[in-house]
Each structure stands twice: as structure tokens, then as C-alpha cells.
Amino acid sequence: MKLVILDRDGTINNDSDEFIKSPDEWKPLPGALEAIARLNHAGWHVAVASNQSGLGRGLFDVASLNAMHAKMHKLLAAQGGRIDAVFYCPHAADEGCRCRKPRPGLFEQIAERFGVDLHGVPVVGDGLRDLQAGVAVGCEPHLVLTGKGAPLRGQPLPDNYPPGTRVHEDLAAFAEWVIAQPARTIA
Ligand SMILES: [Mg+2]
Ligand SMILES: [Zn+2]
């Protein structure tokens, strides 16, 4: 199968230092849902791996998170696209869990759910932690210059990013790039 793993906030939708706490606050970035639909049409399955420490901090509850994802799935379906699964870390930063990126727990959950080795699977995110978490399980790192990545536009990539990190303007540019690559699948 062909699988890509996407971060959510700042990659698919707008991000906020105040957290995205409700469906009203969840707004897709321009072209992002269309990009996911294009990936799907090219045969890619899409999973999301997202830190949602606002849950652990009590800023919103699971019902609100589910409602945000229902909105995401609905808007995406209207574009002819589909996200297979959303994996999130509900913990606050000080809980020391294994699933909060840059730790690899969400990726391990995805590997288990899909029954695949994630070696070479593209991971796309707007922040260093997204890429570190993916690289820890062998994913191929892709940074988008939206969300927290936007300040890096026009700058050289900082040295602390994983070797081989590819930089894309946004999720649409990533989709265009990966679709143009020679066919590759994972076991
Ligand atoms: Mg993000
Ligand atoms: Zn966690």
C-alpha cells in the first residue's frame, strides 16, 4: 500500500497559539483538502498523527475533538477525499507519555493499525517534532512552510532538522511532488 502520514494543525488546517478548540476554529488551509483528495486519487492512503495536548490541559474535550474531525472528514469528502484514520496524543507535555511527538508512539500505533513497516513512508508536518517522530520509525521527512513552518520561508533549513528533510511550500506542493515520484509501495 501507499501511505502518507500527516500532521494536522498547521499542515491541514490553521494553527493557533491559543489551540484549535472547536469545529468553528478548525479551518482548512487553502488547497490542503484538495491536496489530500489528489493523493487519494493517486492511490495514497492518508493517516493523521496529531499532538492534542489541549485535551490534557482541559482546554477542550474529546467530544469537541471528535466534532472537529467530523468537520474535517465532511469537508474532505466534499472534495472527494478521505483520511483513513486520525491518531492523536491527548496528553499534556508534562505527562511523559510515549505518544506525544517528537516521541514515536503515534507512529507505532499507525504501523500496528495498518500492519505495515513505516520505513520510507513520507511524514509531512509544519514542525520539527513531527519529522523527528516519523524519522524515529524510519519515515521520510517532509516539512511544509505553513503553520509553524511559515517563518522558515526563504531561510535555509536549520541544522537540527533530520538529514534529507525535503521542504515544500504547502501540502499541495508536497502532493504534487510525491505524485510525480516513481511508484513506490511499502510492505
Ligand atoms: Mg503542526
Ligand atoms: Zn501522549
From TrEMBL:
<comment type="pathway">
    <text>Nucleotide-sugar biosynthesis; ADP-L-glycero-beta-D-manno-heptose biosynthesis; ADP-L-glycero-beta-D-manno-heptose from D-glycero-beta-D-manno-heptose 7-phosphate: step 2/4.</text>
</comment>
<keyword id="KW-0963">Cytoplasm</keyword>
<dbReference type="GO" id="GO:0005975">
    <property type="term" value="P:carbohydrate metabolic process"/>
</dbReference>
<feature type="binding site">
    <location>
        <position position="97"/>
    </location>
    <ligand>
        <name>Zn(2+)</name>
    </ligand>
</feature>
<dbReference type="InterPro" id="IPR006549">
    <property type="entry name" value="HAD-SF_hydro_IIIA"/>
</dbReference>
<feature type="active site" description="Proton donor">
    <location>
        <position position="9"/>
    </location>
</feature>
<feature type="binding site">
    <location>
        <position position="99"/>
    </location>
    <ligand>
        <name>Zn(2+)</name>
    </ligand>
</feature>
<feature type="binding site">
    <location>
        <position position="89"/>
    </location>
    <ligand>
        <name>Zn(2+)</name>
    </ligand>
</feature>
<feature type="site" description="Contributes to substrate recognition">
    <location>
        <position position="100"/>
    </location>
</feature>
<keyword id="KW-0862">Zinc</keyword>
<dbReference type="GO" id="GO:0005737">
    <property type="term" value="C:cytoplasm"/>
</dbReference>
<dbReference type="InterPro" id="IPR004446">
    <property type="entry name" value="Heptose_bisP_phosphatase"/>
</dbReference>
<dbReference type="GO" id="GO:0046872">
    <property type="term" value="F:metal ion binding"/>
</dbReference>
<dbReference type="InterPro" id="IPR036412">
    <property type="entry name" value="HAD-like_sf"/>
</dbReference>
<protein>
    <recommendedName>
        <fullName>D,D-heptose 1,7-bisphosphate phosphatase</fullName>
        <ecNumber>3.1.3.-</ecNumber>
    </recommendedName>
</protein>
<dbReference type="Pfam" id="PF00702">
    <property type="entry name" value="Hydrolase"/>
</dbReference>
<keyword id="KW-0378">Hydrolase</keyword>
<feature type="site" description="Stabilizes the phosphoryl group">
    <location>
        <position position="101"/>
    </location>
</feature>
<keyword id="KW-0479">Metal-binding</keyword>
<keyword id="KW-0119">Carbohydrate metabolism</keyword>
<feature type="binding site">
    <location>
        <position position="91"/>
    </location>
    <ligand>
        <name>Zn(2+)</name>
    </ligand>
</feature>
<keyword id="KW-0460">Magnesium</keyword>
<feature type="site" description="Stabilizes the phosphoryl group">
    <location>
        <position position="50"/>
    </location>
</feature>
<feature type="binding site">
    <location>
        <position position="9"/>
    </location>
    <ligand>
        <name>Mg(2+)</name>
    </ligand>
</feature>
<dbReference type="GO" id="GO:0034200">
    <property type="term" value="F:D-glycero-beta-D-manno-heptose 1,7-bisphosphate 7-phosphatase activity"/>
</dbReference>
<comment type="subunit">
    <text>Monomer.</text>
</comment>
<dbReference type="InterPro" id="IPR006543">
    <property type="entry name" value="Histidinol-phos"/>
</dbReference>
<feature type="binding site">
    <location>
        <position position="126"/>
    </location>
    <ligand>
        <name>Mg(2+)</name>
    </ligand>
</feature>
<comment type="similarity">
    <text>Belongs to the gmhB family.</text>
</comment>
<dbReference type="InterPro" id="IPR023214">
    <property type="entry name" value="HAD_sf"/>
</dbReference>
<feature type="binding site">
    <location>
        <position position="7"/>
    </location>
    <ligand>
        <name>Mg(2+)</name>
    </ligand>
</feature>
<feature type="active site" description="Nucleophile">
    <location>
        <position position="7"/>
    </location>
</feature>
